[in-house]
Amino acid sequence: MQNGFFRLVKMPGGFGIRFFPPTDGGEEVRIAEVISYLDRLHVDYDANQLKKYIGEKTQGACFLGRKDCPVCDETYQLEVSDDFMEAVARFYPPSDTGKRITFDEFYKDLRYRNIVSGVQMSSLQDHFQSEGIYCTDLVVARGREPRQGTDARVEYYFNTEVHVQPTMREDGSVDFFHLNMINHCRKGEMLARILPETQGEPGVNILGRRIAPKPVKRAVLKFGRNIELSPDKNAIYSKVDGHVVLVDDKVFVSDVYEVENVDITTGNIEFEGSVQINGNVASNFVVNARGNVIINGVVEGAHITAGGNIIIARGVNGMGKGTLEAGRDVVAKFIENATVNAGGYVNTESILHSQVSAGTEITVTGRRGFITGGHVQAGNRINVKNLGAALGASTIVEVGVDPERKARYVQLQKEISELVKLIKNTQPVLISFGEKRAKGVRFTPEQLKYVKDAAQLVETKKEELARKNREMNELHTLLAGQRKAAVVVQGSAYPGTTIIIGDVSMILQSNYQYCRFEKVEGDVKMLPM
What we know:
This protein is of the alpha/beta class and 529 residues long. It has six helices and 40 strands. The N and C termini lie far apart (116 Å). 27% of the residues are buried. Residues 77-247 form the Flagellar Assembly Protein A N-terminal region domain.
C-alpha cells in the first residue's frame, strides 16, 4: 500500500509540483500537507490554484512559477510520542534536482535525538532500499513495554458465598426443607491455597531508559482455629470435621454448627460435627450430625440423629412421628410420643407413650419420674420413680437384652423362617424333575435352564441359612450370658405393667412400692430395695 504523494518537478518555462495517486487503498494527497511542505521550503505558490488543481485531480503537474526547479533533497518529519515509546517518520521525496538521504544519515540523526533502542530496521530498509515510501507514517523506533506480573491470590475450595436457597427436586418442585446453608468440610481437607505472584519484566523506551513493571502484591492466608497451615505456608487444611465459612477474607472452621431454631428459615441440617440449637426444632424437620446435638428448646415431631449425644433441655414431643437416634446418650427433660434409640444411656424426667431403647441404662428421675405407656428397653438397668399407670395404660419395660442384638435376633428368626420356606417349596420341583428324567422324559432348553437356576438357588439359600443359623446361635449365647439386669422402682409400679428380663416376663397384678425386679431361678421376681 502506498499513499498518494507529490514531488517538485521541472516544467517547460519553470517548475511545478506533480501528484502521484495512491495505490492498493492508500490515502489521497492531503492539501494541508502539500502547503506545509512548500512553506517549510519557502517555495512560492498560488494557494487557490493549487487547491483547485488538487480538487480537480488533473493529470500532469501544477505549474508553480517561472523559475528553475528548487533543489530540495529528500526530507522527513519525525514525531516522538510523549511517553518516548514510539518514533514515527514521514518522508517526502526530493525534487527533480535534489537527492535522497541515506540510511546512515537518517540513523545518525536518530542517534543525535538519543533514539537508541527499538529501531525498526525492517521498516527503514523498506524505505531506503526502494524508491521510497512517502507521505506515509513509518514507525522507525518502538520501545518494549514492560511485561506486567500478576498479583498473588487465594483460591478457595469451598463455596464462599452461601445463600439460603431451596433444593430443586427432579420433578421441578421446590424442597424448602433443604436450604443448602452449610459448607461441609472433612478433617485433612484442603480449604484454600495461595497462587503465588509472578514477577514482571522491565521494558525499555526508545531512549534506552528502563521501564519498571508495576509492583505485584503478595497474598497471605488468614484463618482461625481448627485449621492447619502447610509447611510452605501456601495452603490451609481443616483439622476437624465441620463447616467452613469465609468472613472478611478470613477462613473459619467450626466443629459446632450453631443456629437459633430449626424451621423454614434454616431447613434441614446435615452436619459433620456437632450442632447447637439455641431454640426449638419444628415438626417434620431433620437434624443429622456426626457429633453431638444440643437443643436448648423443644423438639416437636422432628427427626434428630447424632453420632454422639443428644441433649434436649426442654424435652421432645414426637407427636407420634418424631425420632431421636444417638450413637451415645440421650438426655431430655421429657420424652412424649416419640421413638428414641440410644447406644449408651437415656436420662429423662418422664417417658409417656414412647418407644425408648438404650444400650446400657435408662434413668427416669425428677419430681414425677414416670414411665407410662409404650415400650422401654435397656441393656442393663432401668431406674424409674413411677412405673405404669393407675388407669392401666399398656406399659412394657425390658432389661437384660441389648436392644440392637435382640432386634437382630428377631430379624434373624424371620429371615431363617423365610429361607426354610423357600427351600421347602423348591425341593419338590427338583425331586419331580429327577424322577421324570430317570423315566426318559425330554425337556426343552428353557425347562432345563429353569431347573438349573432353581438348583443353584437352593444351594445358595442353604449356605445363607447355615450362616444365619450360626449368627443366631452366637447371639443366643450372648443374650443368655448377659450380666444381671434389673428394673428399679423408687416409687410405685402399677398393675398391668409388663416387665421383661432376658427371656422371661411378668405382668404385674398388683401395686408394688420401692422395689426391684430381677431374674431369679428362671422367673422375674420382686425384691426389696
